[in-house]
Write a structure and sequence with these properties.
mainly alpha
């Protein structure tokens, strides 16, 4: 029962993260990408600051923890194919979401966050946008694909467990 609850929490939290990343990839970044440079930088800076709220942090860290716990708590109770699937899902999520976020997106977010957009020249703003935009979007697409893959893998594991 405890293992099933952890798996369900992993599904819910990874699904919520997949939804967030999907929305950013398919609506937010294409939308703000149409803005002029200063508007783009202000919008991205504001959204990056706002998203770092307690609810987001609980869901983000919850998915990281639950995907790690799922194969551990199910190790002895379920067939090795299910455990292998859960380990694979864990690796995909930890590298493709957690790793990419901390090694890629967060440094770009920090670069933007520490920039005073009220005093930056248009040349420096353009250079900053060039530095951030394409790389940030690419990394978010990776997070989108890997979080969706994780979500689907966790659902498959739940279905296999309940067969």
């Amino acid at each position: 029962m405890k293992a099933t609850i952890i798996l369900i929490l992993a599904i819910i939290t990874s699904g919520l993260m997949a939804g967030i990343f999907f929305t950013w990839s398919n609506a937010v970044t294409p939308g703000i990408g149409k803005l002029h440079t200063m508007e783009y930088l202000r919008a991205l800076q504001s959204m990056n600051r706002v998203i770092l709220n307690p609810t987001f942090r609980v869901v983000f860290i919850g998915a990281v923890i639950m995907t790690a716990l799922a194969p551990i708590v199910m190790y002895k109770a379920y067939p090795s194919t299910i455990i292998l699937l859960l380990v694979l899902v864990f690796i995909i999520y930890w590298i493709g979401v957690f790793g990419v976020t901390f090694l890629g997106n967060i440094p770009l977010n920090r670069l933007l966050d520490t920039t005073n957009l009220d005093t930056i020249s248009i040349e420096n703003a353009t250079a900053l946008r060039t530095t951030i935009e394409a790389k940030w979007n690419y990394l978010n697409h990776i997070r989108t694909c890997t979080s969706i893959t994780t979500f689907i893998g966790l659902i498959i594991a739940l279905v296999l467990i309940n067969k």
